[in-house]
């Protein structure tokens, strides 16, 4: 490994770039957030000394616990729906002909080229009372009066699923790609039925992808504050909304920072669990 | 709207690259609060390029300017009422040289020399307006809506719009209870919160991007709206009426200020003078529906605008009207706590 780095200046440059990126754009800002979270709130300078853990104590206020749990519920529901759609989708994707696969993945990624905020506004136009969906259903005679779709919890979930689904599909697709056909054939040869094969072979082998997908969906789902703002009519708060409110409206930076640290730590915990499970699976495989 | 804010940021990013531009004015303003025509005419007349960026709350604007860093170096901003005094006291503003502002003497004396800036050393009034009740008269039948308290009516379940503004929503609830809209008494604030929880099942959405939109989209039939938004909304929806509630509207005055880290205060002075020109002030008032403080401009307004009570209220409409004041940091925390409690519906 070391030798190859010396031999390839390009690779060294990439490593420097990646490490520089991580240090200055990931580690340093996060350290600033950690710093802000242990400072004291100050009305005129936002934050000041002395250092204390007051902001973290405030997090234990039952109100914020409730917001966190509600947020977790919305995010978990989003993740579950993404998984239910994404799992069969990824499986099917891995089964189509190679050339077409590339095209389908391309189509999956294309929406990313448009800013997610703009796409959320587009969803709003579709879901509004006199929006596309309602007018279509009414002209088809399915409903007589426009249904209230926008500014509901359902609209927020739809928005979150729409924005985050690709993050579930891509890691699942990569595990399904590695799932070798002969493993399944072997399972059948050894007398396992379809269900048993799925339960005992497919699920364990794709579990790392499931976990990766869950991680990539669950935490962003708690932070995408503009989705409840636009589609939920600024109701149905997520943790991301609380953080935004604390920074802008209440001007309580230490508290906002502490809330964001807790979110990051939850993420770290999940990643740790993911690694543990991967290692365990790896050992079983060996 | 946020879309516009986004476009503004994009414009900022694009022009940020070319440093050989002769002159640039960085204008930081509320969304949908300046007709494009005014900017174009200013650019044509002076050759100064306007980079227009928007915000949707005083809090957002304040948080951005407070940092005083280069990424937020605006030459002009438009804070509401008490934010002028707040920013002035915190030394965030540059003094405005009145000798460079032509048309200052044309301003309504009732809107200059206010407590927020007694000698207008730091601020020049841009527009003023009110937050009252919007009613979609096509969908609202029965008793007419005349008071904030009517929003609590059973018939508006799921059809009420509120502004996404903590102070305004509490102001409204405090007035319904007969308390001052700028209360700092935790007991009264809590009561206002309790009262608002009863309203929550009726609330369809909170909107401070463009409060007319929920009405136009058909989501809301009644609720809080800014007077100019009601005027703009009426253009595409005849049935939208603006009502001055009995308990009193929330009044505000938005003023031009020059932030301390402005790079081109000279252009800022030029822009203020330009906007105070009677024909420009009249154009703005006609286009976005808020009232101009430039007296000589009011004579240029068409009867339709000057006679529109939504834009230019009568003395009777303004009975019980209250300006928002700085409530101090301690009370702000109390409001913030109940605001989040209210929004999370817990």
TrEMBL record, chain A:
<dbReference type="InterPro" id="IPR000515">
    <property type="entry name" value="MetI-like"/>
</dbReference>
<feature type="transmembrane region" description="Helical">
    <location>
        <begin position="67"/>
        <end position="90"/>
    </location>
</feature>
<feature type="transmembrane region" description="Helical">
    <location>
        <begin position="201"/>
        <end position="227"/>
    </location>
</feature>
<keyword id="KW-1003">Cell membrane</keyword>
<keyword id="KW-0472">Membrane</keyword>
<comment type="similarity">
    <text>Belongs to the binding-protein-dependent transport system permease family. CysTW subfamily.</text>
</comment>
<feature type="transmembrane region" description="Helical">
    <location>
        <begin position="102"/>
        <end position="122"/>
    </location>
</feature>
<keyword id="KW-0812">Transmembrane</keyword>
<feature type="domain" description="ABC transmembrane type-1">
    <location>
        <begin position="68"/>
        <end position="274"/>
    </location>
</feature>
<protein>
    <submittedName>
        <fullName>Spermidine/putrescine ABC transporter permease PotB</fullName>
    </submittedName>
</protein>
<dbReference type="Pfam" id="PF00528">
    <property type="entry name" value="BPD_transp_1"/>
</dbReference>
<keyword id="KW-0813">Transport</keyword>
<dbReference type="InterPro" id="IPR035906">
    <property type="entry name" value="MetI-like_sf"/>
</dbReference>
<feature type="transmembrane region" description="Helical">
    <location>
        <begin position="155"/>
        <end position="176"/>
    </location>
</feature>
<keyword id="KW-1133">Transmembrane helix</keyword>
<feature type="transmembrane region" description="Helical">
    <location>
        <begin position="253"/>
        <end position="273"/>
    </location>
</feature>
From TrEMBL, chain B:
<keyword id="KW-0732">Signal</keyword>
<dbReference type="InterPro" id="IPR006059">
    <property type="entry name" value="SBP"/>
</dbReference>
<dbReference type="Pfam" id="PF13416">
    <property type="entry name" value="SBP_bac_8"/>
</dbReference>
<keyword id="KW-0813">Transport</keyword>
<comment type="similarity">
    <text>Belongs to the bacterial solute-binding protein PotD/PotF family.</text>
</comment>
<dbReference type="InterPro" id="IPR001188">
    <property type="entry name" value="Sperm_putr-bd"/>
</dbReference>
<keyword id="KW-0574">Periplasm</keyword>
<comment type="function">
    <text>Required for the activity of the bacterial periplasmic transport system of putrescine.</text>
</comment>
<protein>
    <recommendedName>
        <fullName>Putrescine-binding periplasmic protein</fullName>
    </recommendedName>
</protein>
């Amino acid at each position: 490994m070391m030798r190859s780095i010396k031999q390839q200046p390009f690779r060294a440059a990439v490593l420097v770039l990646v490490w520089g990126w991580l240090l200055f754009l990931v580690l340093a800002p996060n350290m600033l957030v950690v710093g802000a979270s242990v400072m004291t709130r100050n009305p005129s300078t936002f934050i000041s000394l002395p250092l204390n853990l007051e902001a973290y104590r405030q997090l234990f206020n039952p109100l914020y616990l409730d917001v966190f749990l509600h947020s977790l519920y919305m995010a978990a529901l989003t993740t579950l729906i993404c998984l239910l759609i994404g799992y069969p989708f990824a499986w099917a994707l891995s089964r189509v002909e190679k050339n077409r696969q590339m095209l389908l993945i391309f189509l999956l990624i294309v929406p990313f080229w448009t800013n997610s905020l703009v796409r959320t506004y587009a969803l709003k136009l579709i879901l509004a009372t006199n929006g596309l969906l309602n007018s279509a259903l009414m002209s088809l005679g399915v409903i007589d009066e426009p249904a209230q779709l926008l500014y509901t919890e359902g609209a927020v979930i739809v928005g979150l699923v729409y924005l985050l689904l690709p993050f579930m599909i891509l890691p699942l697709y990569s595990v399904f790609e590695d799932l070798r056909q002969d493993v399944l054939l072997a399972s059948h040869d050894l007398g396992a039925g379809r269900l048993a094969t799925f339960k005992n072979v497919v699920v364990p082998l794709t579990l790392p992808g499931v976990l990766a997908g869950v991680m990539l969906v669950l935490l962003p789902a708690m932070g995408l504050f503009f989705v409840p703002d636009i589609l939920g009519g600024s109701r149905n708060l997520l943790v991301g909304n609380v953080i935004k409110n604390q920074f802008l409206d209440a001007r309580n930076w230490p508290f906002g920072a502490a809330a964001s640290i807790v979110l990051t730590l939850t993420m770290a915990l999940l990643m740790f669990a993911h690694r543990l499970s991967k290692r365990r699976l790896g050992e079983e495989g060996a | 709207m946020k879309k516009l804010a986004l476009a503004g940021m994009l414009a900022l990013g694009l022009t940020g690259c070319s440093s050989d531009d002769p002159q640039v004015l960085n204008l930081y303003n509320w969304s949908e609060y300046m007709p494009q025509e005014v900017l174009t005419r200013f650019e044509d007349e002076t050759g100064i390029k306007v980079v227009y960026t928007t915000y949707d709350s005083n809090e957002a604007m304040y948080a951005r300017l407070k940092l005083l860093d280069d990424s937020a170096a605006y030459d002009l901003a438009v804070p509401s009422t008490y934010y002028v005094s707040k920013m002035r006291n915190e030394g965030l503003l540059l003094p405005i040289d009145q000798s460079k502002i032509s048309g200052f003497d044309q301003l309504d004396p009732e809107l200059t020399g206010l407590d927020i800036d007694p000698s207008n050393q730091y601020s020049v009034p841009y527009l003023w307006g009110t937050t009252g009740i919007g009613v979609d008269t096509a969908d609202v039948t029965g008793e007419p809506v005349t008071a904030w308290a009517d929003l609590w009516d059973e018939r508006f379940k799921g059809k009420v719009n509120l502004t996404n503004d903590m102070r305004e929503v509490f102001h409204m609830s405090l007035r319904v209870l007969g308390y001052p809209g700028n209360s700092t008494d935790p007991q009264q604030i809590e009561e206002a919160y309790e009262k608002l929880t009863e309203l929550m099942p009726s609330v369809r959405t909170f909107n401070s991007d463009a409060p007319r939109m929920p009405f136009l989209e058909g989501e809301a039939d009644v609720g809080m709206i800014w007077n100019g938004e009601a005027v703009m909304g009426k253009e595409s929806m005849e049935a939208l009426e603006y009502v001055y509630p009995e308990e009193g509207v929330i009044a505000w005055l938005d003023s031009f200020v020059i932030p301390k880290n402005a790079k081109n205060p000279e252009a800022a002075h030029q822009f203020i003078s330009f906007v105070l020109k009677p024909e420009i002030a009249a154009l703005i008032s006609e286009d976005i529906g808020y009232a101009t403080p430039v007296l000589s401009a009011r004579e240029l307004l068409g009867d339709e605008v000057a006679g529109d009570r939504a834009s230019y209220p009568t003395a009777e409409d303004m009975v019980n009207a209250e300006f928002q004041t700085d409530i101090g940091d301690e009370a702000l925390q109390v409001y913030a706590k109940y605001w989040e409690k209210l929004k999370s519906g817990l």
